[in-house]
From TrEMBL:
Domain Septum formation inhibitor MinC C-terminal: from-to ranges: 120-215
Domain (Septum formation inhibitor MinC N-terminal) ranges: 5-74
One BP term from GO: regulation of cell division
Family: Belongs to the MinC family.
Recorded superkingdom: Bacteria
Protein's recorded name: Probable septum site-determining protein MinC
Gene3D superfamilies: 2.160.20.70, 3.30.160.540
HAMAP family named among the record's database cross-references: MinC
Gene: minC
Length: 222
């Protein structure tokens, strides 16, 4: 996301990693910019913070948490090397853990680290959020939501809300065996499903000519 802030997603949710050498004011400025620019992705998110070896006073932590709260984001957990930071987090009601320790070298992220594969049903009221691509083997029911920084592939019926490219990627696509979302968004573009839906078949939605177009999987492959 920036030189000072990075975001990763996984089966346990989102994690924001802060550079632990930059001054706090620069971090907060970068964070506010990212939260504002990517409001659709972060709004309503619950995430973990990784502050490295940075020492956060209770006052500094309050500034950070207030900024997140103003953008509808909840910090549920924190990883920190400094005991003072973990104590401040626990006082604020946040689960705090020491940083993981590596005997040799920290694990390197693989190219597949940005993709998430899940086998489940996203039911009404549930939100599946990930910074990279999402492949879901299952259905998205009406009232369920998928929000991805990359593309979304649903091996099933997509009948809820879907937002691909939510971090600004206008080359993201949405593909489903049955593409009938209540609303579909790709980057800044959005569309709704026509009242009279056509035959049920695998379809792909993408941005073309400044708007979302939907075509059959066969046509997309050509």
């Amino acid at each position: 996301m920036s030189d000072l802030i990075s975001i990763k997603g996984g089966r346990d949710g989102l994690r924001i990693r802060f550079d632990d050498t930059a001054d706090l004011s620069s971090l907060l400025e970068q964070l506010e910019r990212q939260l504002t620019q990517n409001r659709a992705f972060f709004s309503g998110a619950r995430l973990a913070l990784d502050v490295g070896e940075r020492v956060l006073t209770p006052e500094a932590l309050d500034q950070l948490l207030l900024l997140l709260q103003q953008h509808g984001v909840v910090a549920e957990a924190m990883s920190a090397g400094a005991r003072e930071t973990r104590n401040a987090a626990r006082t604020a009601g946040i689960t705090a853990r020491p940083l993981p320790r590596y005997t040799e070298h920290p694990p390197q992220s693989s190219p597949d680290a940005e993709a998430l594969l899940l086998l489940r049903t996203v039911r009404s009221g549930q939100v599946l959020r990930h910074s990279g691509h999402i492949t879901l083997v299952g259905d998205v029911n009406p009232g369920g939501e998928i929000i991805a920084g990359g593309s979304v592939v649903v091996w099933g019926r997509l009948r809820g809300f879907v937002h691909a490219g939510a971090l600004g990627n206008d080359e993201a696509i949405v593909c489903a065996m049955e593409l009938r979302p209540t609303q579909i968004r790709i980057a800044e573009q959005f569309a709704t499903t026509p009242q009279e839906a056509g035959p049920h078949r695998p379809e792909v939605a993408r941005i073309a000519g400044g708007q979302i177009v939907v075509e059959s999987w066969e046509a997309f492959k050509k």
